[in-house]
From TrEMBL:
It comes from the Bacteria. PANTHER family: BLL7265 PROTEIN, UPF0603 PROTEIN YGCG. Residues 4-120 form the TPM domain. InterPro entries: TPM_dom (IPR007621). Gene3D superfamilies: 3.10.310.50. This is TPM domain-containing protein.
Amino acid sequence: MPRDIITPADEQKIMAAIQEAEQQTSGEIRVHVESNCDKDVLDRATEVFAELHMHQTELRNGVLFYIALEDHQFAVLGDAGINASVPDHFWEDITAEVIKHFKYKKYAEGLAQGVRMAGEQLKAHFPYDRQGDTNELSDDVSFGE
């Protein structure tokens, strides 16, 4: 079970990174953790993206960090607004950084670092607007089976 590996303290660390990143950008970041991925990891991440209603942000600037712990699968997926703006190597750089931590079973640290990296890019392309910005998506870590 994912909650046996991602502790409440880990959840807090990940949520703090999301909140820190989102204070600098109108972008929205979610983390979803489950045990298994029984299909292509990007296909499953796309399903979760839709299940979490991430495509409904006003600027189409949601980013999903998806991890299937037991299957050692990871993907980071951005919505259309972000994909049109970030450099080509953006997702690969984040993935490499996160996986570096995962190899040592430092899941919360890896996810938090990846979230901070995404936040930096989002800040450049989708700056925070103090007057008009609302938190469109939950900062909680979501869990599947």
